[in-house]
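Deliverable D4.2, example record:
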Amino acid sequence: MKKLSIIMIAAALALSAYAANTDVLKDKSNFSKVELFAEDSVFSNPQINAEVVKAYETNPDAYSDKELFPVAICYMTLHRPEKTKAMLEKYIASSPNDAKAIRTYANILAVFGDFENALPNFKKSYVLGDKESAKLIALILLQTNRIDDVKEYLPELSEFAKTDLGVLNILLSYAYRNQNNRDVELAKRSINAAQAGEMLKNSSLDTFLMALNLYMVEKGVWNANALILPARGAMLSGHWGLARSLYSEILEANPSNIDALKGKSIVEFNLGGINEASALLDKILALGDKSVINDAMELFIVSKNQGIFEKYKKNFENFDFSPKVRLAMLGFAANTEGRADMLFMALSGEGVKPLLENERIAGEIKTVLKKYESDPRSKEFLKKLSK
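Output generated by the structure prediction step:
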């Protein structure tokens, strides 16, 4: 539903799960084994990254150039691009065929706005077999008004565009490069191959807005399934009437499209239709998607309509809410009197574990529990947290 202004929402940034083995960074003897650092998630623990940088700065002479790649990435995660650039230059001099390092270096150059030097480095990485670089080459070509040169990379881009909305946008921009002779067939082919549902999960605000703009350029190439992308762009930019029209068109073709039902429920709420939004959530629930209970809770929190809470109360009880929704529930309980029900719904079930394991969020939870210290459940939960 809407973005929520609550006291703990910023803490959601700390919920990253360290799925990869971040401990490989604790042993310097690993640093020359670049295959251990192929996954970005290895660098997902800021504390370990800071320790690596501190160890390097304490004794830089202890590191050979071939051991500097993980150090460079740790600098990058700590937002020190100048040091990242310097480390990568040393590492690449010793390992000139490391495609990932070259792509990372090109990315840093692009951050500094040095597209002219970033582009040949991306191309070198691409020639070394890093197909991911094709996306970045195409993006620079688009930004520097050399869109015609994208043609060389169309085979790779067409594959990436199936799941990457940013790349799909580049392909459509290429197809529309000649206003008087648009390549409508390329646009249709690219849109028909797009896995729109997957793109909804991993695309940024900017890419949705660009998809909306490209939809307005050539509406006829968009099928009902892919319309979910410009519809999201319309919703995120507050074009509620257009968003409603697009979601309605999708649902006319496929009444069981859950993404469209969810999107339209947000639109209806923002147009003042709380009951209409709730009715759409009911349809999703009838289709068997239990995750919509998260949306129902958010609808209650943003609307503060107690009727919505009572309607879904039985569904809320014992439901395993997502971490994001639990944070919203905790914020609501903190800012509203007499909502112990919300507090302990947020703190029940397996899904609360990531919150309790995060020191910052656990501290916020203690603060909310103290507000409700007259409730026996608060005392029990505080004992649990103290352990």
